[in-house]
């Protein structure tokens, strides 16, 4: 059992802000927005992420966590709430 493969593990029960930061950075490449500081309630557009970057982010989240993201998530908090609310409960 490999402990380093946690993201694609179907037993993953929580997506953290750090996980989201990693996915956003990977999805948007070097053209991504600023992800430092308290960004939970900052609109993705204010962070520099357009609809294409969010589409790629949604695809990565769907692949890694097995959940679909609604079209109308405006902030990192909304996205995390949506993902974590769709993940199976631990136990």
Question: What attributes characterize this protein structure?
Answer:
91 residues; 4 helices; Actinorhodin polyketide synthase acyl carrier protein; disordered N terminus; PP-bd_ACP; globular; 46% helix; Non-ribosomal Peptide Synthetase Peptidyl Carrier Protein, Chain A
The N- to C-terminal Cα distance equals 19 Å
Give the integer mean of the pLDDT values: 81
Query: What are the low-pLDDT stretches, counting only 5+ consecutive residues below 50?
Result: 1-8
- What composes the largest sheet? none
Query: Which fold name corresponds to the CATH topology?
Result: Non-ribosomal Peptide Synthetase Peptidyl Carrier Protein, Chain A
Helicity range of the residues?
A: 40-55%
The CATH class assignment is Mainly Alpha
Radius of gyration: 13 Å
Number of helices: 4
- Could you state the order of secondary-structure elements as H and E? HHHH
Bulk shape: globular
The domain tally reads 1
Helix and strand layout, with pairings?
Elements (H helix, E strand, L loop, with lengths): L16 H12 L15 H4 L3 H15 L10 H11 L5
Helix pairs in contact: 1-3
Give an overview in words:
The structure is a single chain. The protein has 91 residues and is mainly alpha-helical. The protein has one domain (17-86): ACP-like (Non-ribosomal Peptide Synthetase Peptidyl Carrier Protein, Chain A). The protein contains four helices and no strands. Helix 1 packs across helix 3 (51-65). The radius of gyration is 13 Å and the shape is globular. Mean pLDDT is 81; it is low at 1-8.
Short characterization:
InterPro entries: ACP-like_sf (IPR036736), PKS_PP-bd (IPR020806), PP-bd_ACP (IPR009081). With 91 residues, the chain is mostly helical.
């Amino acid at each position: 059992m490999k402990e380093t493969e946690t993201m694609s593990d179907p037993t993953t029960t929580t997506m953290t802000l750090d996980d989201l930061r990693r996915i956003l950075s990977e999805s948007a490449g070097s053209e991504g927005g600023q992800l430092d500081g308290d960004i939970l309630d900052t609109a993705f557009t204010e962070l520099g992420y357009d609809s294409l970057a969010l589409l790629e982010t949604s695809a990565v989240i769907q692949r890694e966590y097995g959940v679909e993201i609604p079209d109308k998530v405006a902030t990192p908090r909304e996205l995390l709430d949506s993902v974590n609310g769709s993940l199976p409960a631990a136990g």
